[in-house]
Amino acid sequence: MQSTTEGQARSTNGPAQLPQTIDTADAMRNPGMELDMDWVLSARANRSAIERRAVTLPGRRSVKKEYQAAWLARAISCIDLTTLAGDDTEGRVRRLCAKARQPVRADLLEAIGLPGLTTGAVCVYHDMVATAHDALQGSGIPVAAVSTGFPAGLTPFPLRVAEIGESVKAGAEEIDIVITRRHVLQGNWQALYDEMKAFRAACGEAHVKAILATGELGTLQNVARASLVCMMAGADFIKTSTGKESVNATLPVSLVMIRAIRDYHQRTGIRVGYKPAGGISKAKDALVYLSLIKEELGDRWLRPDLFRFGASSLLGDIERQLEHHVTGAYSAAWRHAAS
Amino acid sequence: MSIKDIFETMDYGPAPEAAGDALAWIVDQGSRFGAFINGEFTTPGDTFETINPATGEVLAQVTQASPADVDAAVAAARKAQDGWERLGGKGRARHLYALARLVQKHARLFAVLESLDSGKPIREARDIDVPLVARHFYYHAGMAQLMEAELPGRAAMGVCGQVVPWNFPLLMLAWKIAPALAMGNTVVLKPAEWTSLTALLFADICRQAGLPKGVVNIVTGDGVVGAALVAHDGVDKVAFTGSTEVGRKIREATAGQGKGLTLELGGKSPFVVFEDADLDSAVEGLVDAIWFNGGQVCCAGSRLLVQEGVAERFHEKLKLRMQSLRVGNPLDKCIDVGAIVHPEQLARIKGLVAGSGGVVTQGTAPEGCYYPPTLIEGLEPADPLMQEEIFGPVLVSTTFRTPSEAVALANNTRYGLAASVWSENVNVALDVAPKLVAGVVWVNGTNMFDAAAGFGGVRESGFGREGGWEGLQAYTKPAAKRKALKVAAPVVGEPELPEGLDRTAKLYIGGKQARPDGGYVRHVFGKGGKALGQVGIANRKDLRNAVEAARGAAGWSGATAHNRAQVLYYIAENLEARAEEFAARIDAVTGKGGKAEVEAAVSRLFSYGAWADKFGGDLRQVPMRGMALAVREPVGVVGAFCPDEAPLLGLISVLAPAIAMGNRVVLVAGEAGPLTATDFYQVLDTSDVPGGVVNILTGSHAELAPTMAQHFDIDAVWSFSASDISAVIERESAASLKRTWVNNGLVTDWDTAEGRAFLEQATEVKTVWVPYGA
């Protein structure tokens, strides 16, 4: 089989422990591999066909009643509850962390049989990491820090690497780095690979999510190639956007990125996570994303270790939908705790 | 399962569409349906059950229309036709608009009813079939509005007998009824016996829309009813979508009746994946190609051809995708593949796959009238399943090495309905698309349809187009009345040698003069019985040789339009240089008018020289980012019986449009003045016409007609003969399903027989869909 042969060829070049089967790799972090330019340049993304798939997907899958409630709870468990604003304060972040611990009113969680449900993580700027870390003590909820000169990623390279170290030291278990878009736009894949590899090394034990800022990459083909390069350089997650670009997470972009993840898994046996961020604010959208992941990657990815939503207002809509499920009456925002 | 459990399993759970309203509609109608004739439902007669294939439950009783019902429906349509046509295009546009609106208002009812009756997933009925139905009526409301302005000189055909299949019951109804009504025709439509209900709901909608009585009539029943309808004397035009086998029977049954006929038949459409394609998207394309409507689609991409370098990876991706296809209850909104339409069809699919070689991979399907998504690898072109239409969710696959091999394998089929090409390289995609023998080609896509884009096939996939301007050809005819063609008694005289040195007129095959195979000649006499010479009598072997020569001259079809125009002008130049000689020859046969006829012939050559580079097709406004190109392609090898009147002008009028559009021709000269044709060889010889592009035989039309109509390597046969050969040509063309264009014994005015009518017959519209996006 061609793909196996290629996979083996890679495993001899790359890290020796690259596993070939899915099961042994289940809990394994992406160790990365040598930059394989043949693979990168063979990536294709046909925009029209991808958009067609994206447009029809919501009509192909539908989740109702208790299934919908369960799926929405699953969505909550995968949210990186986020605040990334210039006016963030310790108070604001503590409020957010409290919401992460108790994302839905206790009586509602009780009613659906999922007391103790929390969000996947809390995502903040470096300056707020210590506050968040403190506020989440004992909850098991990790703190994610955006880093490397977020959102543009154009501060001096040594500072970007140092910033990662500072956030890890302050208690961040997950680091959301931004790539240098210029490397993609100029086709400088080696530079992108090297940069990503350095970021990954700086993270140490902390997991690293690579933000591609897809809204600034110009084409879906660039998105596909950048996804592969970042995975080859050891990204644990690939993530669409900072939330600051004019276009953030979309279904077509998601399709391209998760197909790259699938390809990477098929060829290396390693599972890389996916995080769409920005613009996902409705419970219905969350269901579509979950079904997209289920269809294209499979059930294993429907867990917070492999899937996250980067979102700030999504949770509010899900809370209202859950209350509707429990009571049968349409809900209102004021019935749920603010973050 | 508790929410907590589902939280872990992340199953989809049931998401059923409610069927209550649709079932209530059936009950409201008494659960027994008569035919819909002259604006009313008849009292149900002998009825049969229509079942929900997903459950086996009986949905309703439907009437097996009697011969009297068919007569009554045709009579009602006939009675209504004149008034409907006189209403004018703008008046009809309002009715079609109302039908479109009502289809939209009752969209969910139509969708659920369709899913119940046919087993197709509710998603497809709701998101694809019904929206396309509404779109078809809107589009043709526009065509009605524009008819008088844009189609001057065209009139309705009259009463249309239409027979539609069970795979897209309502959509095919719309494709048949909308253009017919727009152009002022009235219709009698027969839905497939397994799926009559949406047609009956449509009848109900016609009443609500206030459509005049008799404009739309629906007769239900089995193939017997369909056979009675298409053969009915009172029907002027027959349109059929269904199997190639039945299409052939209809061709035979209607031969010589003077009816218009369009057939949209089977297919085994290739799905070609090049190594530089977006493989994931191509896999998803295959899902839409072969698992759309359970593969029960005439244009299903059922033959996968993958370039060798990516074949293994592509098949792995495909098999992975097959695992996540959900087969089951058609009314569930999470279902990808619904029920097979009927246990009979299921048995047929099972039988075909059971007899197959190759490596079979299948997904899963529930018990009952379901069949799992199936892939069969390792078949060679010679395997029957690579050639036979399965009409189920079964994909066969093989590999290719080069673009030219892909084209050769793709075209290695009796069919020619549709094709998909997947490549990110615009050079590859746009080079391959025109070479695929198909009426529709999708580049990096599949199963895209729109009312503005023509749909239809070539070869045994049938003829005629539905949708677009070309679709209106089938539902209109020239408004001018045509008289019967008088057959002049053959002139007989004394077989004596004409004055001067003896000349031997031969046949013209492959750019050379050839003696007739049979070795026989006949005498030709001019006006008053004067002996003019002898001509060879071509037989079937001469015809075979001529067709071989024409087939071999394929380069002509690829020549530039400018180049073809240059040749036509050159013929004109050389003809005019010998004007006096030709005029004298014509005068000798007809007595007068030779000079004027030569002038007209030269002018005609000029006209088609002019047309050669101006009839290439156009761009269609379809709802997509991309281009839908309606490309005018040459039909291929055209055989034609030239008129007996106008020996030179008739010959030129047939030859010039055909070769201007890139066809190669085998002409049989008119029987009255064949020496004009044989003289013309020398004009061709001196005009840079490549050998084999024009082949001319002399001989008996009646003798050659069946051979020509049967010949599998001729793509179209035209006849303007005074001999009574229209019926035999239509009948004998049934085996190959080649296009025919015959005069039905009616006269053609050769002074004016020029232009679009001929160009349209000389070309096939191929719709090439090219979605794009950086």
Automatic annotation (TrEMBL), chain A:
**Can you name this protein?**
Deoxyribose-phosphate aldolase
Q: What is the lineage of its organism?
A: Bacteria, Pseudomonadati, Pseudomonadota, Alphaproteobacteria, Rhodobacterales
Any Gene Ontology CC annotation: cytoplasm
Entry similarity comment: Belongs to the DeoC/FbaB aldolase family. DeoC type 2 subfamily.
* Name of the gene: deoC
Keyword rRNA-binding among UniProt keywords: no
Q: Transmembrane segments in this chain: where?
A: none
Q: Where is this region: Disordered?
A: 1-21
Which GO terms of type biological process are on file? carbohydrate catabolic process; deoxyribonucleotide catabolic process
What top-level branch of life does the organism fall under?
A: Bacteria
Query: InterPro entries, per this entry?
Result: Aldolase_TIM (IPR013785), DeoC (IPR011343), DeoC/FbaB/LacD_aldolase (IPR002915)
Q: Under the GO molecular function aspect, what terms does this record hold?
A: deoxyribose-phosphate aldolase activity
* Keywords from the named record: Lyase, Schiff base
In the Enzyme Commission scheme, what number(s) does this protein have? Answer: 4.1.2.4
Which SMART domains does the record associate with it? Answer: DeoC
Pathway annotation: Carbohydrate degradation; 2-deoxy-D-ribose 1-phosphate degradation; D-glyceraldehyde 3-phosphate and acetaldehyde from 2-deoxy-alpha-D-ribose 1-phosphate: step 2/2
Tell me what reaction this enzyme catalyses. 2-deoxy-D-ribose 5-phosphate = D-glyceraldehyde 3-phosphate + acetaldehyde
- Please give the PANTHER family that the UniProt record associates with this protein: DEOXYRIBOSE-PHOSPHATE ALDOLASE (PTHR10889)
TrEMBL record, chain B:
For the Aldehyde dehydrogenase domain, which residue ranges apply?
A: 46-477, 529-743
Active site residues of this protein: 264
- Record carries keyword Oxidoreductase: yes
Q: Which SUPFAM superfamilies match?
A: ALDH-like
Q: What is its EC number?
A: 1.2.1.3
Could you list this entry's UniProt keywords, alphabetically sorted: Oxidoreductase
One example of the protein's molecular function in GO is: aldehyde dehydrogenase (NAD+) activity
InterPro entries given for it?
A: Ald_DH/histidinol_DH (IPR016161), Ald_DH_C (IPR016163), Ald_DH_CS_GLU (IPR029510), Ald_DH_N (IPR016162), Aldehyde_DH (IPR011408), Aldehyde_DH_dom (IPR015590)
List the Pfam families: Aldedh
PANTHER family in the cross-refs = ALDEHYDE DEHYDROGENASE-RELATED (PTHR11699)
State the family named in the UniProt similarity comment for this chain: Belongs to the aldehyde dehydrogenase family.
Q: What is this protein called?
A: Putative aldehyde dehydrogenase AldA
Species of origin reads Pseudooceanicola marinus
